Amino acid sequence: MPGFLIVSVSAVLLLAVAVVVLCRWAGLKPWHALVCVAFGFYLASSSLAPALARLGAELARSVAGP
Fold it and tell me: Which of 12, 39, 52, 62 has its CA 20 to 30 A from that of 5?
């Protein structure tokens, strides 16, 4: 499943860029970003994690096309 790893790394980088942009230009405070990171960390270890991973994979497939 090497394609899944590429999508995961790309998603992480895209979200990291979004957080940096929001911190610099949208007034997101660093502690708000840390709360979001903590929420994501705990969400990833929850029972919702497999469903969210499938959703992310389906979104990536729909964006990539056939």
Answer: 39
